[in-house]
Structure formats: C-alpha cells, structure tokens
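Example record for the data management plan.
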Amino acid sequence: MPAYPVTLCEAPWWFSPYLFFDGRCEEALDFHKSSLRAKVTRVMPYQDAPDPPPGMVLPGSEGKIMHASFRLGETTVMGSDGRCGGQLEFRGFSLSLTVASEGEADRVFAALAEGGHVHMPLGTTFFAPRFGMVAGRFGVSWMLIVTR
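Corresponding structural encoding:
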C-alpha cells in the first residue's frame, strides 16, 4: 500500500473549463471582457484551421470561433462556437467565482444576472458576507462568493 499523499505526476495540475457557446462565442467573449474584466488571450476561427476533417466545419461557420481562451482572475477559461447546431445548453455544473470585496460581488453579480436567471439572490449568509447563484445570459451557472 502506498504512503500518502501520493504524487500523481511531476508537474502541478490544473483544470480549465471549456465552454461551447453554440455559435455565440464572440458575443460571450465580448460580454466577459466588458462585464467581468476578462482578458482574451487567444481566438482561432475555423477558417484558420489547416485541412479540417470533412464535416467538421458546417457551411457558413467558417468565421466562427474554433477555439478561444480568456482569463478571469487567475483562471483560464476556454471556449468555442462548437458545431453551431442551435443547442446551447449548460447542465450539471456551476463555475464558482470568488471575488475580493462585497462591492465587486455586487457589480459582477448584477452583470451576470442581466439577461440571465437568478437562482439565489446575492446576499449575506452564515458562511460569507456575499453569496449568490445565477445562470447568465449564455446559460452558464455561476456561484459567486466573497470569503470572510
């Protein structure tokens, strides 16, 4: 039996969410830049891909985004227009966002809620001065928290 803790690899690991915006990736990038102060670090349209496999790029989607990445605080989030099939849906997860102040929480939550759906209003809880849950205009579920 191995001694704990077990190191699984030499280098540190990290997770980066990859979100498929079903044809609305450019709009999502613009929103995250203007409302959440995201920094877009990469955008690759389908038309720049060398020799895509047949059927990979739907007709009319050549200018859509094959891959993008942006930074929210210390986290890299990746995104794509995906197959642009009209099936935008995010289920079974939330992105948890920790911000430094109550004022920043109020600003970010309001931006996410605009055009979205509030699941739990932002407010004081027994575990945080501000916590709330919202699905933004693109359907991504967020949990926003200010830690004590």
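Summary line stored alongside the record: Strands lie at 18-20, 39-45, 65-72, 75-80, 95-99, 117-123, 130-135, 141-146.
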